[in-house]
Amino acid sequence: MTGINRDSLQILRVDWPSLRTVGGLSPEPNVGAIVVRIENKRSNDSHRVFVDIREGIRRMPVAYLLNPGNHRGRYILGGGHSYASYDRSQRNIPGTSQPANWICQGDFEHIYLTQEASVSARLGAFLNHIASVLNS
After folding, report:
1. For the chain, N or C: smaller number of CB within 10 Å?
2. Structure letter (DSSP) for residue 54
């Protein structure tokens, strides 16, 4: 399977109304990436996050910060450098030539995989975790 079925993402919009799908990374009716805005607890500008979901829910997604500004730090790293064993980031945002700012989510995959095997449970837990990382 490549990506996640577009219709199954609808339930996530309850908690993440800014969720937008990104075309061109998976064959229809699937979606290979989403972009979501996450509230920034330190300033008025929100975090814009690109989430690579081309591997579906069987593997943890990979998240990139689209508007790093002054947010680079211990959790925002240049993509594609294999900082940790769980780092599957790419040097550029998938499907673009834009340099990637990988959000290091820690060794969260084991927790991700214990969630119910549904889009709402796993991707919802992942997005909540990314929000926590960005606002810590």
Report:
1. C
2. T
Q: How far apart are CA 77 and CA 46, in angstroms?
A: 18
Q: Residue 97 and residue 112: Cα distance in Å, rounded?
A: 29
CA 54 to mean position of chain CA atoms:
11
Place of tokens 């979606």: 31
- pLDDT by residue (tens digit) across 38-62? 998 888 889 999 999 999 999 999 9
SS3 for 94-126, per residue?
CCCCCECEEECCCCCHHHHHHCCCCHHHHHHHH
Torsion of CA 40, 78, 9, 129, to 10 degrees: -50
Residue 88 pLDDT: 77
